């Protein structure tokens, strides 16, 4: 029987084609039981490579059956036919993916980016707490529901992390994902910490959300790697980004894996937490509760014309910018003093180094590397 007949027997009316590869395709379908549309991923074992069948597919199926989070695509049913086809019935991202959304509408305003990034970070924390890593985080794998909420999808490269006798997570050696979103340690072929790799990709995604372009040009991997290792990040002058937002991106895109933020530090960062936003522009409070004076952040663009992106993800017609609300310096300093008096911990940790900031802006690849 063809796919339509097989799905019909399971209570699904097959719809349009959503995507197709060499051994897998995704169809839309209407579920007579659920009374709404779903996505059906159909994998043909006869056409799939051996390593996919032996390693990646079993991992994906195992992990999909474990996950239950509001910001992760739901899996409703998985079944296999006698002729070797696997059907995975999942939640449908009715508004498409985040990359197409940004290409169509341009960079997100910070409030919208904050909401979506918090949803994504919460999903990653949920996975990491279960010792599950995604390893292919990119805008194409972030679907949007009818209310434009983030739904993390495509766990084809995911795995459960193993621990050694001391309880430490084992390193990974397999290169997964797309080069434009890959951490420098992965690009170098060094055994890497998979959770820390996911974090880097989060930083690339947040940059794309608020800038509408890529932070690094992956058309020249050697040059991109050098820029990454020097901890250089360029923020377009045309975007009125807050210091808190730039600080978070800068700390996530940290080439030193021992200094890169953990998922809990991301979720507690002042930009993600609305109640403490606005303090960073006046002072940075370190973990010991000490504060430095007002300073120029290390990512401040030099005077002169802005360096244009090589490839924009946003439309040519610029979207209106939203400037952050101004706040009197005296009020900010008073709030900092109040926090110091109560010995509140720093929302972001130590002060970033004063590195020169620049970089490129490419288009992400369409296929896995």
UniProtKB/TrEMBL annotation:
Stretches the record annotates as Disordered: 290-369
Protein's GO biological process: intracellular signal transduction; microtubule cytoskeleton organization; spermatid development
Keyword Phosphoprotein: yes
Enzyme Commission numbers on file: 2.7.11.1
Predominant place of localization: cytoplasm
InterPro entries tied to this protein: Kinase-like_dom_sf, Prot_kinase_dom, Protein_kinase_ATP_BS, Ser/Thr_kinase_AS
Chemical reaction(s) catalysed: L-threonyl-[protein] + ATP = O-phospho-L-threonyl-[protein] + ADP + H(+); L-seryl-[protein] + ATP = O-phospho-L-seryl-[protein] + ADP + H(+)
Molecular function as annotated in GO: ATP binding; magnesium ion binding; protein-containing complex binding; tau-protein kinase activity
Domain Protein kinase: 12-272
Coiled coil feature spans: none
Biased composition (Basic and acidic residues): 304-315
Keyword list, A-Z: ATP-binding, Cytoplasm, Developmental protein, Differentiation, Kinase, Magnesium, Metal-binding, Nucleotide-binding, Phosphoprotein, Serine/threonine-protein kinase, Spermatogenesis, Transferase, Ubl conjugation
Protein name: non-specific serine/threonine protein kinase
Species for this entry: Myotis lucifugus (Little brown bat)
């Amino acid at each position: 029987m063809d796919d339509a007949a097989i799905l019909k027997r399971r209570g699904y009316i097959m719809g349009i084609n959503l995507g197709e590869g060499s051994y897998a395709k995704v169809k839309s379908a209407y579920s007579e039981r659920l009374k709404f549309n779903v996505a059906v991923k159909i994998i043909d074992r006869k056409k799939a490579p051996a390593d996919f069948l032996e390693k990646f597919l079993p991992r994906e199926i195992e992990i999909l059956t474990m996950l239950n989070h509001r910001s992760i695509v739901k899996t409703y049913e998985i079944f296999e036919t006698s002729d070797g086809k696997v059907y995975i019935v999942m939640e449908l991202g009715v508004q498409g993916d985040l990359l197409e959304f940004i290409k169509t509408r341009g960079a997100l305003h910070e409030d919208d980016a904050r909401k979506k990034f918090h949803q994504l970070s919460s999903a990653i924390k949920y996975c990491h707490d279960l010792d599950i890593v995604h390893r292919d985080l990119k805008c194409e794998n972030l679907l949007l529901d009818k209310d434009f909420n983030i739904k993390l999808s495509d766990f084809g490269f995911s795995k459960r992390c193993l621990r050694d006798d001391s309880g430490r997570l084992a390193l990974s050696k397999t290169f997964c994902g797309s080069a434009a979103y890959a951490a420098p340690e992965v690009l170098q072929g060094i055994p890497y910490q998979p959770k820390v790799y996911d974090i880097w990709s989060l930083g690339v995604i947040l940059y794309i959300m608020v800038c509408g372009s890529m932070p690094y040009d992956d058309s020249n991997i050697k040059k991109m790697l050098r820029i990454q290792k020097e901890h250089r990040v360029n923020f377009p002058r045309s975007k009125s980004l807050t210091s808190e937002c730039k600080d978070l991106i800068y700390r996530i895109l940290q080439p030193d894996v021992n200094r890169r933020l953990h998922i809990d530090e991301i979720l507690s960062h002042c930009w993600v937490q609305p109640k403490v936003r606005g303090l960073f522009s006046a002072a940075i409070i370190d973990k010991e509760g000490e504060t430095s004076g007002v300073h120029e952040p290390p990512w401040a663009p030099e005077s002169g014309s802005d360096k244009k992106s090589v490839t924009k993800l946003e439309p040519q017609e610029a979207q209106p910018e939203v400037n952050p609300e101004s706040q009197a310096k005296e009020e900010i300093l008073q709030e900092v003093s109040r926090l110091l008096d109560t010995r509140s911990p720093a929302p972001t940790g130590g002060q970033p180094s004063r590195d020169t900031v620049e970089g490129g802006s490419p288009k992400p690849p369409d296929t896995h590397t």
